[in-house]
Amino acid sequence: MELTEDQFLAQLMRHLLKSRGVDLSGYSPSFVLRAIKKRVGRSGALDQSDYLKKLLRSENETNELLNALSINVTEFFRDQGAFESFSAKVIRPLMAERVSAGGGVLRIWSAGCASGQETYTLAICLSEEMKRFPESGKLIMSITGTDISVSAIAKAKSGIYSIEELKGLPDNHLSEYFVEGPDGFEVIDRLRKRVRFAKENLLVRPGARFYDAIVCRNVLIYFSRQTHEVVLKNLHEALRLDGYLMLGRTEALMGALRSNFDVVDQENRILRKKR
Ligand SMILES: C[S@@+](CC[C@H](N)C(=O)[O-])C[C@H]1O[C@@H](n2cnc3c(N)ncnc32)[C@H](O)[C@@H]1O
């Protein structure tokens, strides 16, 4: 039976909400329809009903649709001031604490990292802060980037970016942390060895992980309020006591968890888990 456009859209939105927690109800319908029509054309589907069948069966098509909706958009040093603040208010005190303890591990999670620009930005921030602490060579630094999109994680693992994808990266960092190769600019080994990537769904409870800091930026904005709270609960659980959480500039804590964090920097959405 042929679906009306409204029925098609309603079923598609239900699928994204149920499978990914992504709530498109706040988006402009014309924007959503344009992106969907692009995917219907490119996927080889015969019509909207056929596309819906493909979408419900295929995780890959769900990722492609989210890509078409620009949900994987990212860049190096996105909102530069946020990373300056994160370096000064999070990395620096954590590094000072570990150095004065004579060593240890510093663990950061870049949750919803898309194609890795945010994760490598954090690796660059750590390297820059290490310059302030001559004894920091003894520390073990570990940054984990995770995302639900397999294609985004594959790109992040490659560590190779075109000049357009390096938008936002200061020139001095480009020459210090990348080498130019035949396929683009490649992250140097010194950064790469501190970084690992994995596919992971933020809606699934991660268990106790004891991260010192979690950066989860521009991810919650796509979620319904209910999903938002589930994800925040999972992030809270994955942080050690006194651990830091940085959200995107337009994101805020919602619900009961608000009282479990202190605000470190309101403008840059940096919070700290209460003891
Ligand atoms: C706009 S990008 C943000 C990338 C980066 N954090 C930044 O601020 O530039 C949002 C990312 O969240 C990911 N995402 C969406 N739902 C997710 C989920 N349930 N679990 C993990 N990642 C998810 C998307 O695949 C996408 O790569």
Gist of the model:
This protein is α/β, with parallel strands linked by helices.
Description:
The protein is of the alpha/beta class and 275 residues long. It has two domains: 5-68, no CATH class; 80-273, 3-Layer(aba) Sandwich (Rossmann fold). Helices cover 43% and strands 20% of the residues. The strands form two sheets. A seven-stranded mixed sheet has the order 6-2-1-7-8-10-9. Strands 3-5-4 form a three-stranded antiparallel sheet. Helix 1 (5-20) packs parallel to helix 3, helix 3 (48-57) crosses helix 4 and helix 5 (80-100) crosses helix 6. The longest helix has 21 residues, at 80-100. The model has no long low-confidence stretch (mean pLDDT 92). The structure holds S-adenosylmethionine (SAM). S-adenosylmethionine binds at residues 20-21, 66, 71-74, 78, 112-114, 118, 147-149, 152, 201-203, 217-219, 248.
